[in-house]
Design a protein that fits this description.
The structure is a single chain. By secondary structure, the protein is an all-alpha fold. The chain folds into two domains: 165 residues, no CATH class; 69 residues, no CATH class. Helices cover 79% and strands 0% of the residues. The chain has twelve helices and no strands. α3 runs antiparallel to α4. The two termini are 27 Å apart. Keywords: Cell membrane, Membrane, Transmembrane, Transmembrane helix, Transport. This is Branched-chain amino acid ABC transporter permease.
Length: 236
């Protein structure tokens, strides 16, 4: 948990400094991290605010970027559906990419879902994000052109750290490759909803190869043990 918390520090600093540079007051900048807590959506929204965009493009862009949380919530729906409404609201507020990844690692390791662990990890990132935002606000008032230090790479580094450990079989690998290639192609084609489209392309690719893997393993049970073992190794 701690390495990922550290990884969001440059990201949070960039968010705080950018908020100041686009004209938000220190209180507004900090309030955005306190009440919105949206990471990449915050950065995109503030960039649009800085360009003088009207409210609708800002809202639509942040919605599109945050739409991946619909997938995250669907994954956890069976675990939290019977919890009280307040607990579900708390869980939803703290649900981030990092919390999603850590909670899934916990489930894979312990074969169970732990609400306390999930929320605790979310709170840890929330605290670190807001502290980093505060540093960025102070830096934005005192250091010019903070973006020149390459802090935005923290965004890519964080997602790489989340995705790579999850690649454990062919279906996950193909999902990552399909979504990665498709988002690059769609961005080059200037497709407005490249992020959403590539997400679904990756999902379908992962689902297709997962189904193929299950079918092969099912068929291998009817084969000789030696050939079946070889087929299962090829699927991994």
């Amino acid at each position: 948990m701690f390495p990922l918390c550290v990884a969001v520090i440059p990201w949070g600093i960039l968010c705080g400094s950018l908020a100041i540079q686009v004209g938000l007051s220190p209180w507004q900048a900090q309030a955005m991290s306190l009440f919105v807590f949206a990471g990449a959506a915050q950065l995109a929204g503030m960039q649009l605010i800085g360009l003088g965009s009207p409210a609708m493009p800002v809202l639509s862009s942040t919605f599109v970027i945050s739409s991946r949380h619909l997938l995250y919530s669907a994954v956890f729906q069976s675990y939290v559906k019977d919890l009280p409404l307040f607990k579900r609201i708390v869980f939803a507020f703290f649900l981030t990419d990092e919390m999603f990844a850590l909670t899934n690692v916990f489930i894979a390791k312990h074969k169970r879902f732990c609400y306390a662990y999930a929320v605790a990890s979310g709170i840890a990132f929330y605290v670190m994000w807001n502290l980093a935002t505060l540093v960025g606000i102070v830096a934005g008032n005192n250091i010019e052109n903070l973006q020149a230090y390459g802090l935005e790479f923290a965004i890519a580094a964080t997602f790489i750290a989340l995705v790579v450990p999850a690649i454990k079989d062919k279906s996950v690998l193909m999902s990552v490759l399909a979504s990665g290639v498709s988002v690059l192609v769609l961005e080059l084609l200037a497709f407005e909803y490249a992020l959403i489209a590539s997400t679904f392309i990756g999902m379908f690719a992962g689902y297709y190869f997962a189904i193929k893997s299950v079918a092969r393993k099912s068929a291998s049970r009817k084969m000789s043990p030696k050939y079946a073992a070889k087929q299962e190794q090829n699927d991994e």
